[in-house]
Design brief:
single chain; 191 residues; two-stranded antiparallel ribbon; 5 helices; 19% strand
């Protein structure tokens, strides 16, 4: 499992980040099946920044896109435990099938490239994956001049007794330490 910052900002969509990470993973593991986890729909999406697009339309487009490209659909928290549980089961099935899963644990768009807190519940998923001996490797992506920098960190070390919130903090810091200080958000040293 690869975890990365949900890099979004002016003129950059997180799908671009997923494509960069996919290229890095493909180079390291040629022929690997790579699955990205994506949200079920965009909320308050505006075409050209002006024209409101209903959530149902983005959900329809995302569902089609995800089916074609093998993206794992993760419903928003508001969809409830059962719906999100389905997303987790799809992640676990992919892991059991030896797929590489790319996960953005912040779980939401940012507008200025800075990290957000890791979503609650991610620590429980990571602990479960750790029990299965699945490596969880952090990657960071950020704009640097006219290009993007991609860094790969060390595998997370998670023990059975580690609290979920501590795992979430560890995951956030593992990504943030590879970013410039101004992009670390709540994981900055002075936060």
């Amino acid at each position: 499992v690869v975890i990365a910052n949900h890099m979004n900002g002016p003129g950059v969509w997180v799908g671009f980040t997923a494509a960069l990470i996919t290229a890095v993973v493909e180079r390291a593991s040629p022929g690997a099946v790579i699955r990205t986890v994506g949200v079920a729909a965009y909320r308050d999406f505006r075409l050209f920044g002006v024209i409101a697009v209903p959530d149902a339309v983005t959900a329809f487009v995302f569902e089609r896109f995800y089916r074609v490209y093998g993206v794992i659909n993760m419903p928003y928290s508001a969809a409830g435990t059962e719906a999100r549980g389905g997303g987790v089961r799809r992640i676990l099935k992919s892991v059991k099938d030896s797929d590489v899963v790319i996960l953005f644990p912040e779980g939401g768009n940012v507008s200025d490239f800075r990290m957000k807190a890791i979503q609650s519940g991610v620590g429980d998923l990571f602990r479960m994956l750790s029990r299965w001996k699945v490596p969880i490797v952090p990657i960071s992506v950020f704009p640097e001049g006219d290009t993007f920098s991609v860094s790969v960190g060390r595998q997370l070390q998670i023990s059975e007794s580690t609290e979920a919130t501590e795992i979430e903090q560890c995951a956030g810091y593992s990504i943030a330490t590879m970013l410039p200080p101004e992009l670390r958000g709540p994981f900055a040293e002075d936060a």
